[in-house]
Amino acid sequence: MNNYLSLVIFIISIQLFGQTEYVIKGFSEKYSGLLTIEKGYENDVFKKGKIRIINSQTKKELIVVNSDEFTFNLDSNGEVKTNISELPYGEQSILIYQDFNFDGKKDLAIMDGQNSCYHGPSFNIYIEGEKTLEFNAEFTRLAQEYCGMFQTNSETNTITTMTKSGCCWHQFSTFKVIDNTPKLMLQIEEDATNTPYYTTTTTTWEGNKSQQHIEKTIDFTEDGISEVFAFKLNKNQKKVIVFNINNRVLNYALLRTDETVEFAYPITFAYQNNDFTLNTSQDTLTFKNNDATYKIYNINATNSGILVKTKGKTYNLKASKHSISGGISDIKSLNLDNVINE
């Protein structure tokens, strides 16, 4: 009976002045915690209270963090779970004790609320200094401005973060810890907001210099995408594809040999826009982009190509005979919003 009461009082929780307190032990050899939840918030998902970090040897209070939105789980013994970081969307505990700056000494992340993306958990980061834990603004920023806690890789001495906007835009960042400071070295943005085009922008940093590479692809297996006319250019084997979206909007794309998009038209997606002109008697499809005019022709099954007129010169980019599929005549039967007939 005495052991049971001791467990209830010291481990699970104690009611004190209308507040609920949890003693947090076992997450660190050097520190313990005391979590206090204010009266009336005990059963809320987001709990108002404070957490104190205490030196286990001297019993001195080192850190106090207040929050209106603590979240935490208890284990089967009624103790607050710690050192859990299931990224990016899983459980992230109120305390995470590990080496964040790769100096061989463990540091401490303390939840301060739900300030990261989509009202997710955010943390204050305290780096173990020569004598005690010290708040670090640079590491804290990585646990505030992205989606939840960051992830560390001790083999490469790097930190990775992730953030997103809806289903179709994600950003992944990699930081190298240099002189005890995380420095951005790689950032990858994946953008699928302009379907069926998918754009990946990769930016790398070396010192203060950056390089950017943009790669665009098309998913032709996506619902509503139908190829109308396609061929490879005889000169360089790049692929021309004319396709429609939802049987309403016509698009043109020039693909490199690795299937990435070199050029696409129209630049922006819009219904009821006169992007293309179809000449039904000559089987040509014309569009303009900046100072260039493109006329796709389809004389017969083996004679197709593009006439490109720019700066007073005309270039005839002929199709490889055995690569032609479909034809401009197939556009005639479609009622497309961005094509006008002449």
From TrEMBL:
<protein>
    <recommendedName>
        <fullName>VCBS repeat-containing protein</fullName>
    </recommendedName>
</protein>
<dbReference type="InterPro" id="IPR058087">
    <property type="entry name" value="XAC2610_dom"/>
</dbReference>
